[in-house]
Amino acid sequence: xxxxxSHFSIHSDNLTKNSEPTRKDQNDKLQYINFxxxxxMEIQGFVFSKLKxxxxxxxxxxxxxILRLIFHWYPVLHLKATHRKCDLTxxxxxxxxxxxxxxxxxxxxxxxxxxxxEHIDGPEGKLKLKYRLANGQTKEKYEIRILRCKKLxxxxxxxxxxxxxxxxxxxxxxxxxxxxxxxxxxxxxxxxQIVYGxxxxxxxxxxxxxxxxxxxxxxxxxxxxxxxxxxxAEKYYYYSIAIxxxxxxxxxxxxxxxxxxxxxxxxxxNFSSTIIVSRTQGTxxxxxxxxxxxxxxxxxxxxxxxxxxxxxLLHGSCIVNESMLTGESVPVRxxxxxxxxxxxxxxxxxxxTLFCGTKIIQTRTRDNEPALAVVIxxxxxxxxxxxxxxxxxxxxADFKFDRDSYKFIGILAVIxxxxxxxxxVSKSSRQIVPIVIAIKALDIITIVIPPAxxxxxxxxxxxAINRLKKSQIFCINSRVVNVSxxxxxxxxxxxxxxxxxxxxxxxxxxxxxxxxxxxREMSTSSDLFRGMTTxxxxxxxxxxxxxxPLDVKMFxxxxxxxxxxxxELRYGNxxxxxxxxxxxxxxxxxxxxxxxxxxxxxxxxxIVRAPENPYFEVFCKGAPEKIISLSKQATVPNDIHHKLxxxxxxxxxxxxxxxxxxxxxVSYDExxxxxxxxxxxxxxxLGLIVFENPLKPETLGVINTLKEAHLKLVMITGDNIxxxxxxxxxxxxxxxxxxxxxxxxxxxxxxxxxxxxxxxLNKCQSNVKLIDGKVLDLELGYDYRNGYCxxxxxxxxxxxxxxxxxxxxxxxxxxxVFARMSGSQKQQVIESLKNLGYYVAMCGDGANDCGALxxxxxxxxxxxxxxxxxxPFTSKQANITCTSKIIKEGRAALVTSxxxxxxxxxxxxxxxxxxxxxxxxxxxxxxMQFLFIDICLVLNFAASFGRTKAWNGKLSKTPPRTSLxxxxxxxxxxxxxxxxxxxxxxxxxxxQNYSWFExxxxxxxxxxxxxxxxxxxxxxxxxxxxxxxxxxxxxFSKGKPYRKNLFTNHIFVFSxxxxxxxxxxxxxxxxxxxxxxxxxxxxxxxxGKWLCILIAAIAFVICYLxxxxxxxxxxxxxxxxxxxxCFNSKKVYVHVLEHLKSEPQWPEINSKNHGFDNVAYVATExxx
Length: 1168
Fold this sequence. Notes:
By secondary structure, the chain is an alpha+beta fold. Helix content is 41%, strand content 20%.
């Protein structure tokens, strides 16, 4: 439907008041919803018009329903034809326009409904509807006007005269208010359900009958129905049956795939259970999770359960698996929201927020009271709802091949209209019977625009999908197969995609000592060892330690055990969070307090105490540079930076560890109230802990293959930046001779603007060797501007998007690693790459990759969980070898589709040329001649055309063409058609020079337009044109570097040879029954027969030589590059790279920038 996604209900279900707006109420001023936000959309109001509606009803009848069918395709036209524009205050329907990046418009037609609480009474009478808007305002009304768009609700604000988005309690709620929540009564819960709806994430699921009707009413199948009617009038039954069979198969395949995708998505997101809620009277009640609304107080189950809403933990603590959000299957500890003053913020209070879709592994409280949480968001407002919305409403995809296909069909339609006019005029002038003129004119439309085109275009994709299936790669959307052939940028998640899920322990480097590989050789009394046993956030679940893989490996290497059920008596009047113990030595240490790892601080800290010690100890671990900066310099060895550099160059992940003792005078109560900044200071540096993050065996080889093909490779991960950069180095996403520049930002403060700084993460190394266990580094004096890349973490990316958007093209073009990225930020990076002109693939395995997988041109999931629902490709083999296979098959499919489109286009125009030549004498091809061309030649070749397998050599450095309207493909088709037209005209003209020739004469009195007498002209045109379909199949079947040689496709070659022999037989020595079947008038002498063979052979040689030498060697290799050099590339990223080359002084290392005053610079960035 021309790329327009619209939702429309035929019958009005409006519940608005009957107040009829006057003309003065109508307002053409543009209004918006979500104004100033990323999802800002225009909105216009419409009210029902009885006059317009009656006119439409009359036109429906007079056009036999054709106008209503057009309105079905274009709901916006239907809205404007039956409604008139009005002020939103009185509107019954809304037209919402989403203008995606000023490139793609998507329009939605939505009903505006009225909600009220007339059937729900409270103790004091009728209750008001209570809700909260996105601006944080809480309102109460007896009646509200509401509309829903893209699964979100918008409520009419009578004060601001605009629709405002409905939100939960996550906006403008004070922490004290959340803590003082007492829950909701049944009536209050029902009142909120009217506004917020059921707590469900409902995905669209249409019945098979509905899918069948919608598919059958698409323009393509309506055109096929029109063609079948025309063919039935001409008694052209056999080809009609073939088209019907193809249509049934096409519709069935589409319905089955759509139904399967809908069920998969529904099975992934639709779930419900029962839950206990606390009522205002202090009682507890078990209800369905679908009845939850913001404000409910829920009991967090102690058993394994999944969260059905977003909630803030008020009492107790929880261990949660948040892999659905972060992609990292590391249990996270959630603690109760603090009682301090201030406004609750999801980002800042994430450690107290339980998100929908995450799994509760364990809950704990220090009393017998249950763990309680207040519901803040339900349904599509939740984190999981946002994830599903990103799947249901991905950014619009724009593929040049598809655009050009529609343009070419438009061109064919214009040609068809002109041909119809010519036919009507010319035949009318010769006084042909009107019914004959009408049928012949309509027949031209079905010839010029081949109804079989869409079915044929799927052939190459289906063969590619089947070949991928043999490699355990499955595709649920055949459209993206061609798109994958254009990929020039691949983004990878890290953990589980490039690397194994777990880390390996390498050893430790204590201060002033040599490296120790076997941790159990260390003294258990050493501070470094004690820190390794306690400085973590592990939990003990089902007899197993779980947590960050780094923490697990570090703790397991010590040989100590985690004690879950410990005696509190040894620790006096305080209760440790956890206790670690050495059973052999009977030693134990209690972990009193934890400061969770912070990506912005790059460290985590614990306060511990051993039973025999009268004091508390602090252990702090994190990025070595951070720990060193927090340590007393007297405790830091002089060579520590050199040692650190040695390990990082070799690709190890290195952690620093420090300690300090808290004075004996500080009590337990005082320890629990210490601020983090007072704890993490004046440390004694203890040494380095070294880990290996092994790559998957296949990773390095695949990355090198992709880099040799000149693809841009990017890592987008939720892991920390140090680990990400190390892995990027190891797998060659970042080359050894490439300098790494980290982008750091500061948010604006009262006295200072937002700033951005570019810091060298580490100097590039040109040659690193390991000799006798020591690193030998040979520096070559390298200027970082000769080769550098950017790395950035999620926090700083958010600031760049907010305060430095002009820098996004530069950062993304030169970006190699995007670390600590949330799911929405991953999607932002993907969209930024697409905006620069890259064709982007995303390969990941986590649920937090769903948005990015859906936003990318091609999504590749290595998991069968949530991410597989969002991505068109799913690999059963959990490694990235699938990426190169998908690109190879995609390129082969794209070249196949390209060739098939050229072949089908030339086929329709070649047949059109034949018709127009014969129409000149009021003759035509017979039904069996049409059938032979359409089925035995064209469909036969098309069916085997795509069997040519993908090229098995190296990936080409350039992807195939995507533009059908380019200079080369257009020239190729035009030259072929010129030769075809010339050949047919020569055969038509020259056969008339023979002595035995008898000209065809049309009988004007003959009203039977189906049975036309045979003629020599018909024979010459038909027999010459037969060979042209064989010629086009050969010249448009391309091989290296994207597909194997033509001769490897044995079925296709056999078809070509067999049909060449058949066509030769029909031309030279056809049996009498064959002449009768084709209604041909055979020349009595062989000279006329060999004339057709000679012309066809010469035409084949000319076409082959033109395609092989003129097109592929001269135009492609010489002329086209020269032409392209005269014009600037349309790819934005090319302009960015050229601009960066012309500005060698940028970026300035370690220079803090607050803005850009250079007018020329800003103008250039805007132009890009």
